[in-house]
């Protein structure tokens, strides 16, 4: 018995049918189960839009007043609202909230994008199956198709719920920040009383046009790089040195010493930062008072507030952050040292290698190969180290040449001030994009160059 269909339709016909009404092409191909699957999404899309809108307004229909979730969402995404709210005796009048419209529009757009994937999948499936039938291929029931799909794409099916969560939990916030960077959303245009407008690349131009914003950005960026680089290198070097010392057989009670050195890492960094902030307080802190008492200084030192000497505050920040971070590398390197084969050192000693040569040619290469990817992650973490800097100095001392930033502000703490303290959300969004591009580029470039990553 022939497997050819009773009527030979061009493959384009079922594809076009599914493009117009989801599942119609599968129905033409006599696959009712598959047709029901695609039509369920189509019915859900149309039903959701109709149920959430007011499509019985006759000739007075407008996207703002009558559109459903998708129509009004896309309208709000493109317009950001058209009617501002006014303060009346009874409160704010009816109107549009630009940021709510922006968020709702993004959600609608992402839902439509996910549904578009299913739509395209249905169109291609209908056309491909009809083409198979036209060339004499076997018929396949819907149940057989689902069994084959389950066997061949099991991993993707299991990952699909996680993918949807990633879209709405990770991609959505990133897209929201990107779009805010192209608006005038700031303290002068705050919803719900004021509307927000699209301004194109004006915010980027304000930062990169040679103004005070440019000087602040470049200055804070340079200090952020210095902070991240010095913190990473110094904490790794000190951690490596401590781990090698504790691995020496001449050290007695190494577990006790290791526990003591791990205490800075065990205590929450914010707590430590607040304690050090009190200790180095220039007015009543014990460190400044002790220096005066022993005669090392004539006056109290204002470690974090002396605008004439910002490098003093930066140096103290680096030292305190080193004290907080080196135990991580000490523990990490200590674990690597225990896995180095002792025969390497025995062979080196037989060849007359000194302890320093063994350290240089055996210990350091093995440790570095294992730790290199974590060094990159440590750099990124230091680049975005909000807690220590903010709770220790709040970005101080003040810098008259900067806009809303102090001499120890990192990009991330400056971003916090721009958004939560000065309500310059548009400039903060631009800064977020710059941070993302810088950190992402450095991370990808370094990880691709890392031999440890290439061997995974």
UniProtKB/TrEMBL annotation:
SUPFAM superfamilies: MalF N-terminal region-like (SSF160964), MetI-like (SSF161098)
Domain ABC transmembrane type-1: 221-446
Entry's Gene Ontology cellular component terms: maltose transport complex
Keyword Transit peptide listed: no
Membrane-crossing residue ranges in chain numbering: 12-28, 35-57, 101-121, 153-183, 220-247, 259-280, 312-340, 370-392, 424-447
Location in or out of the cell: Cell membrane
Molecular functions per Gene Ontology: ABC-type maltose transporter activity
InterPro entries: MetI-like, MetI-like_sf
Primary subcellular site in the record, as a coarse category: membrane
Purpose of the protein: Part of the ABC transporter complex MalEFGK involved in maltose/maltodextrin import. Probably responsible for the translocation of the substrate across the membrane.
Family, as annotated: Belongs to the binding-protein-dependent transport system permease family. MalFG subfamily.
Official protein name in the record: Maltose/maltodextrin transport system permease protein
Organism: Glycomyces algeriensis
